[in-house]
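input
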Amino acid sequence: MQDGTLLAAVDLGSNSFRLEIGRFEHGHIERIEYFKETVRQGAGLDEDKNLTPESMQRGWDCLARFAERLAGFPREQVRAVATQTLREARNREDFIARGNQILGYPIDIVSGPEEARLIYQGVARLLPQSDERRLVVDIGGRSTELILGKQFTPSHVASFRVGSVAWSSRYFPQGQFTERAFESAEIAAKAVLDEALDVYQRKTWDVAYGSSGTVGAVGEVLLAAGGAEGRISRAGLDWLLEQLLTARSADRVRLPGLKDDRRAVIGGGISVLRAIFSLLDIEEMQVAQGALRQGALYDLLDREQPQTDLRSSTVRGLMQRFAVDELQAQRVAKLASELFLHAAPAGNERAARKLDWAARLHEIGARISHSGYQRHGAYILDHTDAAGFALPELHHLSQLVLAHRGKVHKLEVDLDDPQFALQLMCLRTAVALCHARREPDTEGFSLSFDAGRCVVRSREGWSSSYPQSAHLLHEESYCWQKTPWEFVTELR
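output
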């Protein structure tokens, strides 16, 4: 990436939406602009886990303002990620579909472990280089992430469903602060976080860092009260709890350094933070400057080239884990990608890379059962934690894996998308040509795609030399019947 390139990250958090714009210079990203709006989507989930119309509109209105600033940014220079609230919301597709249109860029819902990985990247990139073992804590609106790592590499990541918005709504519903309410909130937080003790115990890290919302707010309050800059101690948390109990309600809290938009959720945030200090035996925590949005910015750099894209190594790891036939996977992936790049319009290299990953994983379910292995493979991809991948990306791969065999019209996949249809046709064609599990003879073979019609052609005599391959491709024509697309064979 050239020096001077502008990059942008949009963080759709449960409490706030944030936009960070940075300039890439000499291997680092320098902040140019930062925008934050308190949207409180996490408080907009009803009893059925649906976002209310009002909370969705608040989010869309914020995205419209972000979109105005992002106008003109190339798609590959913007990353928008959504976290726990949209992971939980049953009507998230409604919000995302409209949000994509308003923002002008795709919004990726990331898994909890992937959110934790991005948080660690953001924190680590803004810390001095060191061999210290780090514990990173990020208390968000509806989830809390814990990460162990060293330098730029996380070793353990975890996400827990406990956060400042959720705990404030549950244990301080009218904003009333009592000793009993705080005690109940801390006990409940410890119950959720208790499993972290197995991995994140005190002997596994040297320095504890806190990232983003709650930790940043507490750090500001303690600094204004005369504490050390960028430090949170147990004594400081005890003092802050006493201030909240003295105020007796959130709307009466008046503390230097506490911003108005943080007052409504400070009770829940303090409860979770105190629970973490107690559970993990933390005496002091340092306030980190980096967060999820910085991690998303640096992730854009890694995604730029296939050799640095974490998703490629994740795919290799999944292949090893599920004992995929590596040579066959490579054959299918190479051919499918070549067919796609020849048939697709220019500028579809990223789509070709995703097709390559799907092809390498198309037999991932075979270790479970060869019968219907494509369904097992799709299930694995829809339910695995895959570093570097957003949930929609994994689902896209799962749909290609699911539909790489069988009659297409019987499958519940998105056939309205022409790019997906072409990816699938190329994958299915490659699987057919590689059916003998050896390098296929594709000299003079081509695949074209235009106006909803896919045509495969061969050189003279190819069909008689490879009758089984020709038969499979002729059968493919029938598999695409009753779909919006036509698959035509002109084999000689």
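quick obs: The radius of gyration is 26 Å.
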